[in-house]
User: Fold this.
Amino acid sequence: MINKQIKAIINENKEKLFAFRRDLHSHPELSWEEVRTTKRIVEELEKIGIDYRLTHPTGVIAEIKGKKSGKTVALRADIDALPVMELNDTLEYKSIIPGKMHACGHDSHAAMLLIASQALYTVRDQLAGNVRLLFQPAEEIAEGAKAMIEQGAIDHVDNVFGIHIWSQLASGNVSCNVGPSFASADILTVKFRGKGGHGSMPNNTVDAVVVASAFVMNLQAIVAREIDPLEPAVVTIGKMDVGTRFNVIAENAILEGTVRCFSLAIRHKLEKAIRHYADKVAALYGATAEVNYIYGTLPLVNEKRSALLAQSVIASCFDKSTLYPVRPTTGAEDFSYYIQDIPGCFALVGSRNNEKSTDWAHHHGCFNIDEDAMIIGAELYAQYAWAYLNQDKF
Ligand code: NI
Assistant:
């Protein structure tokens, strides 16, 4: 079920794959600022001969039309960098922009999809359908996928496939599980209003420090006592802004946190419980609560047929040991928006190689990838599309 010509083209273009990634790596651009990155992608698409259109304000949607009619499969790569200072001082292609870095590997995603596009364009006469290529900006702020969709990224698309390079997985391994893969990531702000006063006379006040503290402690019961123990969930308060001085009782407290889970039903339950706890704790102390619950990314749940297809492609293309299931992560990925209404799946391509010091966490200043993993990723993009469009023949 794999196309040998695709494999050969990817391997022949290894140096181009590495060089393109290195070029993007040394010129990182933050979310919605990917102007040079977009320009570089377009230059390469033009050289290959692939039709494209620009999305606003950055990003590219391209399309390869197969000779025969059929379905349309979309391949997605995100292209933005992070506000992180690169610490890989000896790297010849280190970021040239202080404080900006491709610390999540999105440079490799763009490069892998580009080389995959070249391979698919070369075999377009063998494609029974079309391949849509999505070079997506602003994933790091969870806005890019939504904006691409609004601009028609998945109009008339039957299936979507995406990849993330993954430093927690050994180079040479790939994971694409059926079901949950990434969590939803919501933003929580709670404001308690009490009554300030002199620190020596608490009886005349409603102490926002006490209310906020009671809320944080009670909040722990939501995951422990309200949610099915077999359903993963996270409620974290990361910031508490309360009080001004040691002998002044605080009137207001503002708490900020994040809420994560893998299903919309659990998400709904968590939001409801948080609102309930905030109101009741505030009432207990005579304060008031205002909860602002902002929906972030959706849970990323790989559709069964798509994930099984990806698994067969991985098993056919690479070693038997390549497929290596990893547990879902409570991190977030805005690829989830693409598969809200149409089937698709998201694979993790391992890039950890201790000998090459590529075992640093994503978003760390020392993050880097084993570039050999990109050969697997580029081929996986192309072979998945080929297999999806030609699967009737298997
Ligand atoms: Ni990322």
Summary: The first helix runs from residue 4 to 12. The CA atoms of residues 314 and 320 lie 8 Å apart.
